[in-house]
Amino acid sequence: MKFNRRRVLDSLHETQLWDIVIIGGGATGLGTAVDAATRGYKTLLVEKYDFAKGTSSKSTKLVHGGVRYLANGDVKLVFSALKERGLIFQNAPHVSFVQSFIIPCYSVFSKLKFLIGLKLYDWMAGKLRIGSTALLKNKTLLQKLPHIKTKNLKGGVQYFDGQFDDARLAINLAQTAADSGAAVINYAEVTAISKDKDALVNGIQFTDTTTKKSYTISAKAVINATGVFVDDILKLDTPTHKNLVRPSQGTHVVVDAHFLGNTDALMIPETSDGRVLFGVPWHGKVLLGTTDTPLDEHQIEPRPLEEEIAFILNTADQYLEHAPTRADVLSIFAGLRPLAAPTESDRGSTKEISRDHKLIASPSNLITITGGKWTTYRKMGEDTVNLAVRTAKLSPTPCKTTHHPIYGFTHDKYPGHWRVYGSSYTRIQELITDDPTLATRIHPDYEYCIAEVVWACRNEMVVKLEDFLARRIRLLLLDAQASLVAAPTVAQVMARELDHDNTWVSKELDEYRILVKNYTF
What we know:
This protein has 521 residues and is an alpha+beta fold.
């Protein structure tokens, strides 16, 4: 199926009965679509907003087993995540890479404790190990993290984990699903779940939010993979449904790279309230986070809380000389984790709520997946499709995603931000060769250029200005004010490519200015 929104919508009438329909275009839904499509099932995925608009574009950008989960005794989850970390490196090397992490230690006991725990972490990765944990003396540690505080410093521990670009992997998964035969559509809001005379789910109704046109879809299996919004879909199935998910907010602060130093990341394993805090180099900036704040409500654009921002900056100040202040913050963003199986005892904390995924088949045969983490998206997709096959009595076909290359797959290492385009890099450069004006930057301080806007319009299903600035490139998350400066140029190019008028440009710019306020003080 072509990865072209208009063509996908026009072709929906060609399939009278879908094997699997997936609601939700985040990590879980997209991984499920790839799994279903590569097995040969007729697959449709619909997403209310843009792909990875919510939680899946607002992670800490780590492909990891979860050192914290190991400390909490969740060994099964860590084993699974370490395996999946290795598979992401194999299947999507263009958007993932090995990252060195350093834990500064201020007592001999803590140094030995972290060394033993992280050696176990290495061992659990088995043949998919990506590095070897080692002790660092003060001199070596300060070469790697030159701005760390030295009072009572007893050296540290270096270990290795993974980093990735979450939104770029999401769009590549959507493209992979489409290349494998799936129909994948963003800005498609599910308004109803249809049932047969036996009260079993047999399809959905959705509305294209850009045209307000409605579609009725018949399906053998319907999967609810909407993250923190799973309960909203379950209430379409059963109006009296009680919530399964309690969101936990993770906030990140983005600052200039010089506050950390070199290419190594900082890991603070024991903050004042027991959280883990990271300082991670990412696209030329440093990401500080994340928090873990239990919430009772969910929304598509959560606002970082003042106390979360203060916690991150105060913790950084405890470990870094000349730590960043509010005036140094380039962007702030928050994502909501869909934590599964809350109970009354969880009301004050999210630490005891499982980070593993949970699968549910409703009496109506609606399949719901909750919880999970980005690193295990492939395994979540496999488990979800397996349950859908059993529930809907589809013809069984083995999973094929363990060693299936993701769209853009290449081991070539392109310079700077171009790396995440993978095999598409050459084709974008061809656009520039044909029209050198497309090499013009959209902002003088960043390498992003007009050719990338053109490419995204033609090949990456952008609909709104935000889609490009926040997720096809990451400028909103890296430097919110710079993205606002770039917005008029991007909007004009998008209007030309997507056949919109100046009214559309004005509307998009107005909406984007409002959005940027969520990412700034």
